[in-house]
Write a structure and sequence with these properties.
The chain has 194 residues and is of the alpha+beta class. The protein contains 4 helices and 6 strands; from the N terminus they run H-E-E-E-H-E-H-E-H-E.
Length: 194
């Protein structure tokens, strides 16, 4: 047998090893690992749906020319708090207890709100993306109704992505059907003496 015939037969035999059984749908997904905050940690997600790198805060060095004679008596500081809202299967209707939580969120001075809706792994990808966005928008609408300015709220949906629990159990799927609300509160730190 010639060398090229042997190579050709090897290629065709290996091709049979990597094919899916007839009738199954092959899906190739581009996956990445990303950080989703302290509550979620690192997660595997589709690259197009993974969060990008966060902007970096410039380091404040020890500048010898800076005045150190008086401390700042009023300094703005931001505090980021994450809230979770869980949804029923195939629903973007907010749970009844969320109205009180939305009122508590809106009662404080808000710098910015980022809301991300998620789904479990059941259903088609396009539908889950739509449902995830509807969940985020439902949360946004509830916050706006309680006085949070709409221009301070960003929403996004991440269906089929970023699971906090395995989808192999009902409890895991329930944990994944959520919206994460990341609120940056503006607070005033009092320093020095009065």
């Amino acid at each position: 047998m010639s060398r090229s015939a042997l190579l050709l037969s090897l290629v065709f035999s290996l091709q049979g090893c990597v094919s899916a059984p007839p009738g199954t749908r092959q899906e190739i997904r581009d996956l990445s690992v990303a950080w989703f905050g302290a509550t979620a940690g690192y997660r595997v997600c589709e690259s197009r749906n993974c969060p990008g790198p966060s902007p970096k805060t410039p380091l404040r060095g020890n500048d010898a020319s800076a005045s150190r004679t008086e401390p700042d008596t009023h300094r703005e500081a931001a505090r980021e708090v994450t809230y979770l809202v869980h949804f029923a299967h195939n629903s973007s209707i907010l749970p009844t207890g969320f109205a009180a939580q939305a009122a508590r969120i809106a009662a404080r001075a808000i710098g910015h709100v980022r809301i991300t809706g998620y789904t479990d792994s059941t259903g088609e990808a396009d539908y889950n993306q739509w449902l995830a966005l509807r969940r985020a928008r439902a949360v946004r609408d509830a916050l706006v109704a309680r006085g949070v300015p709409a221009d301070r709220i960003a929403v996004e949906g991440r269906g089929y992505c970023c699971y906090v629990q395995p989808n192999s159990s009902a409890e895991g799927r329930q944990a994944n059907r959520r919206a994460e609300i990341i609120v940056t509160y503006a607070t005033r730190n009092q320093g020095g003496s009065s």
